[in-house]
Amino acid sequence: MSFASVQQVKRTIRGTVVDNTGLPVIGANVIVKGSAGVGTVTNVDGDFTLEGIEDGATLMISYIGYVDQEVAVAKGKNDYKITIHEDTQNLDEVVVVGYGTQTKVNLTGAVSTIGKDELINRPVTNVSSALQGLTPGVTITSGTGQPGSDGSTIRVRGVGTLNNANPYILVDGIETGTFDSIDPNDIESISVLKDAASAAIYGSKAANGVILVTTKRGKAGKATVSYNGNVSFSNVSTLIDRLSSYDYARLYNQLLTQDGASPRFTDEDLRLFQDGTDPYGHPNTVWTDYIYRTGFMHKHSLNVSGGSEDVKYMASAGFLGQEGTLRNSDRQQFNLRTNLDIKLSDKFTMRTNMAFIHNDYSEPNASYGGGSTQLIRQADRIAPWIPYKKEDGSYGSISDGNPAAWVDINSRKYHLLQNFSGILAFDYHIIDGLTFTLQGAYVTNIKETKDYRKECWYDDVNYHGPDQLGETISRWSRYTLDALLNYDKTFNQDHHFKAMVGYKIEKYDYRNLYAFRKSFPNSEVTDLNGGDSSTQTNSGYSRELALLSYFGRLNYDYKGKYLLEANFRADASSRFAKGYRWGYFPSFSAGWRISEEDFMENTHGWLQSLKLRGSWGLLGNQDAVSDEYYPYLPTLYIGKNFPFGGSVHQGITVVSHKVTTISWENSTNWGIGFDANFLNEFMLSAEYYNRKTSDIIMDIPVSDTFGISGTYQDNKGSLRNSGVEASFAWNHSFNKDWRMGINTNFSYNKNELLDLAGVNEIIDGYMINRIGEPYQSFYVYEVDGLFKSDEEAAAYEKQYGNPWSLPFKGGDFRIKDADGDGKLTDKDRVVKGTQQPKTTFGLTLSAGWKNFDLSVFMQGVTGTNRYFSRDVVGSFIGDTSHPSTNWLDAWTPENTNAEWPRLFLEENSISSPQRVNSSFWCMNTNYLRIKNVNLGYTLPKSWTNKLGIANAKIYYTGENLFTFDSLPFNADPESPSGNLDVYPISRSHSFGINVTF
Fold it and tell me: What are phi and psi of 507, to 5 degrees?
């Protein structure tokens, strides 16, 4: 027999890939299983051609949003029509969990996932903004709109400690602690581990939840090049309306006269303020016009991926240029990422990840420091009758300066952030189902801050200076080594086991260096050496931490019906003393896919899956002591003076008490829930959870006779978070042209303090921590309307007393005798809400018609409050305050039904938020926000094919378009309590394009 006669016959295979409506699927991947580099992509008609295919080969067809399909090449058959089905249920979706993956249908823990499609096409500069409202149980409060600085707070199932409550964030298994070091375009998926069953594998770092970010990787097949770019324009949408110079001067005169003083402004002054004919001597300066502008941003991302069965690659590069809405704030960011998967042999595979990000951003700075916060604060409080510039070209100013002048002289605070991360991992497939993995990772982060404060001459007399520069350089590095042994085997087709054991070592080091000089020859010299050496100061310190861990996980399922999972982790931290370093964190969970039972057979036509699940586990928190790396060690301070022998000597002493038994905070979690998929297009999930945190590290006060003043730290507190969360989704295609979807989520959380080291409450200003109440509740006097007249006010004062040494007057707040003892005291303060929301919700509505698609995303919160201080609405002080227009509706003897109190000079009324912390200023900040609107159009293939383009889409996106709340002034309800002097978030409009070659 000749050699040729035994060769396999190779021939050309042709086919068409269509969806369940019969329409061609354009751009589907068609590859030959097990053949490196043999594959193609369907064309505009869904057609494909493959040459040199042997009988018995298997074709693998895949397309985003559809179920993967395999088709065997039959002998003698050359033409194929292959139908792929939309993956509306995602039951076989692979979900990233700690140190591995699981199919979604077999999960027994509380894990939420966010895909890449929910992150793209949005003009966001950080991942946390894009995640807001997308998943239940995760509360994200926008921080600032400052370019380069996220500032958002992320809470998973409430605030679980009195200390650091941030979740544990990992990117491709590397701890980052923030989303600032990743480009949203590089993300493949995000998993949020919310309960102990899913998070216990991370032990002492998982008490506040875990967020796993997985970046994109290459897939076998033809090389794919994609570009995503957009430009956006943004404006500040939350500026409080403030009084004109005329109204402010008129009302200020009125108050001075009522107080027995002479009016400051003459009738001629008022006329000139009103008609605007003297812009230098009688201006109406709108200070925000001089510090804000229309922001502009352009983003570009280029991604190349592909490979064979043996080598798969992905490389991406991104650039972001941004001019912030606050003048002199900008950002230039560049990032690179490469992910490589190599099959070295049948036994060995290798993975490498490398990522680098360079983030260079700046913010305006006052001549005496404070950054953008100081600029915003002064623009909100400086009176409108102060001119931006006088007629001679000099600046108008108050004692705190002129914010517009700082913008003009380009006084800035510069920031540079560079982050590098690298992973090298080897997988050794020992036998069928048994794999050993060894992974090493290194990440380093360098941040430089250059706080240059330029001197400013406002005129010949008023001056802030001289030039001064403070430079801070901080660097941290983390080295980790993981060794994992995974076993995955099915016995008798019914019993499926998965087991994993692991070992981890981690080292972390941190260094900080600060240097300062002032009196530079001029404001153009910005190198530290240019300052006067006699003024120099410097400081620096370093810290080190180490962590040793053993962990494991066991999964078992019987016929995919009965699901069991157990996790265990043991951590030893160098932060604690010997004997207290080890923490042990187990978890157990179970699931029952009741839909797979024989007695549910009649439901298979409409019920695809119904799963009941429950879990219990214990987690730890070592980051509660983040400010003190070794809280059990007494710190010796040099330079403490003491008298001896009739003279003063310099010595070393301990200034704070330490407890050697201090150790982990512990969090016990349990929950029950269900997941259902039905009618081929509906998904419903709900869960009840209960999380108790004990051994919370607190500051414990000591008596003056102790010998060491202040407080010491110990594990004394406890609190509980409990609540429910639910999500619902529906996706439907009416015909080949029309499609629609709804995705919504809701969560309710109750936060309750249980123990505060034996005391009932701890009061701090207008905040209180009290047993039985939420953490950091507002503690204020309750306002029961306004006094209708001076006589009513006097009678009330006579009956209940007045602890504030300011006589009650008509139009003042009527403070309620809350405890009913017949007199007004500090015991009449009441708890009025908290900054933590009780409920959060999100809703996405999507629709499509032919090549058009539209989505509207809304999110909001309820059960939340903020306390607003004086500068928010201003007061009648003079040059150093700018009242809001709310005061035009203030109480007067002729307007006794007003909601706002009477006008008053400075702080001369109990209605002042600085004088009396009252419920009037503790306002409801519930809101509903139209977070995102996206309209896209996919260009027809008949257009793009001529240009060699596989797919192209143009889109418009609006971000933060509308906000509905009950605040009486135009402020962002997500802003923190206080003076609202944070960099505001913006409303933006973006236009972009996605192109795939």
Answer: -130, 140
**Which helix (H) or strand (E) segment is 188 a member of?**
strand 187-193
In 3D space, the residue among 529, 341, 318 whose CA is nearest the CA of residue 424 turns out to be: 341
| Sequential DSSP letters for 922-950 | EEE--EEEEEEEEEEEEPPHHHHGGGT-S
pLDDT in tens, 254-306: 999 999 999 999 999 999 999 999 999 999 999 999 999 999 999 999 999 99
Token pair listed for 928: 């509903």
Is the torsion defined by CA of 897, 903, 908, 914 positive or negative?
Answer: positive
Cis link prior to 521 (omega < 30° from 0)?
no
pLDDT above 70: residue 695: yes
At residue 920, the 3 state secondary structure works out as helix
Tokens, residue 954: 């143009």
Tens digits of residue pLDDT in 779-836: 999 999 999 999 999 999 999 999 998 999 999 999 999 999 999 999 999 999 999 9
845 CB neighbour count, 10 Å cutoff: 15
399 CB-near residues (< 8 Å, 6+ apart): 880
Cβ neighbours for 645, distance < 8 A, ≥ 6 positions apart: none
Residues 891 and 905: their CA atoms lie apart, in Å, by: 14
120: CB partners within 8 A, 6+ apart: 184, 185, 228, 994
- Whether the per-residue pLDDT at 58 is higher than 90: the answer is no
Where are any strands of DSSP class E within 308-347? 311-323, 330-343
What is the C-alpha separation between 903 and 915, in angstroms, rounded? 14
* CA 20-26-32 angle, 5° bins: 90
Instruction: Give percent of the chain above pLDDT 70.
Output: 96
Bridge partners (DSSP) listed for residue 777? 768, 834
What is the spatial distance between Cα 57 and Cα 933, in angstroms, rounded to a whole number? 46
Task: Measure the CA–CA gap between 295 and 328, rounded to whole angstroms.
Answer: 11
Q: What is the reported pLDDT for 450?
A: 96
With H, G, I as helix, E, B as strand and everything else as coil, classify residue 1. coil
Question: Can you give the pLDDT at residue 3?
Answer: 39
pTM summary value: 0.88
Q: How far is Cα 997 from Cα 987, in angstroms, rounded to an integer?
A: 33
